[in-house]
TrEMBL record:
Region (Disordered): 303-344
The species this protein was found in: Streptomyces bottropensis ATCC 25435
Molecular function in Gene Ontology: hydrolase activity
Entry-linked Gene3D superfamilies: Integrin alpha, N-terminal
The protein's name in its UniProt record: Integrin-like protein
BP-aspect Gene Ontology terms: integrin-mediated signaling pathway
Stored SUPFAM superfamilies: Integrin alpha N-terminal domain
Amino acid sequence: MRKRTLPLTVLTTALLTAAPALPTPTATAAPAKHADDFNGDGWRDLAMGDRGATIDAKKRAGAVIVIWGTAKGLDPARRTVVSQNSPGIPGAAEASDHFGTTITTADLNSDGYADVLATAPGENDSGYNGTFTVLWGSKSGLTTGSSHHNPQYRDRGFAYDLAVGDFDQDGKQDVVAVDGRNIWYLRGPFTESGKRGKATNLDPTDGDHIESYTVVSGNVTKDGTADFAVLGWDWDAHGLGKEGNGVWFYKGGPDAPKRTKRMPLPDGANLLTQASATIADFDRNGYGDLALGSRRSGKGGTAYVFSGTSTGPGRSPRQITQATPGVPGSPESSDTFGSDVSAGDTDGDGYSDLAIGAPGEAIGDSLFRMGAVTVLRGGKSGLTGKNARLYDYATAGVEGEPDERNDAWFGDSLLLRDFTRDGRAELIAAAPEAGRLHILPGTSSGPTGKGSLLLDSNNLNLTSLANFWAELPN
């Protein structure tokens, strides 16, 4: 999770229920083919959180916005907004709930429809601080939900970040939730009535006191079972010192995931706050590689890439900065390179690529914090600076003149995903301070500004004055 200043989006209950009719879907066999096809029509949909949304005069109550996929890609005219005041959704929109702070998608109950997991760390539910809500996919879209709170502690936050996977090989999807104090392993099955399996706090059972706000899942060890990693620091051993930074790897297996290793980070690394992570096979050797971004590490931010092995991520990460040969730009203290990372094949060559956000990047000497995104190409040698490309408001075809304003924060939240099914992932980049979302198509040479799409509160028909803060899914 990344902590930010929150702009306001003004939405009303009438608007929330006035979404255009959804495309007629054809339900698929369980589980869903895509982890983001919420209505089962075979096309990926885009869910994003707006934790600063004002709902029925409740400031920062939060909302989830869905843009529905079609044969031509995402269609902004088909969109739905879901809040805790929406029919069928548990709870009520309250000031500072921050519903939609983190978004994760998966077919949690294996019914053929992908679901959305949305956190609300500011929620107070019967005395429990923090919840996550499952918005259940169906032929009609996201019309029902069930919520989950801290399994043990009422006075502690819950679910700042989430990861989903079958971590115990029982065929049911499980959830891992981190909150800065605990690592909760919530066993499946999850049901629409709100039931789930046993909850286990993995942190105290594994010895270290891990302070983590970021968790990521994927298959690292090539055994077909989901694994996960948590990013943070060992409070008991090192307090707030940077030497306590690390990555703890939990290998999935029979009965429950087990922590098998800790990977320390090089000197200068800083994962105390604002880290991001993804798992993908960048060198196509069958093992999942762990890429993480740390906007406060080194000068201007750093990305670290741990190569996957049969026992988990390797112990010596490759460090990538704007000083790495081939990477465009140069490191500056306020760049925040690594604010978000996302993986996908942007050029159709079969290798996963990595997008790295630097929302603090300037354009020239006078336009500050406009933001930029760097895309690194995957290959036989993994991620390098070779053929890396940078995208910002000076990129041809990207809408929004670079001299319009400072503080756009382009690249603050990222997603690489193939919504058009052409074999090339689009680059989706949020510019939250400008209230924009940019969609750049993929080509044989990677994303391009030509034919890119700009979305804001006006063309999404949210409100004529709103500024929305898009948080893209993990």
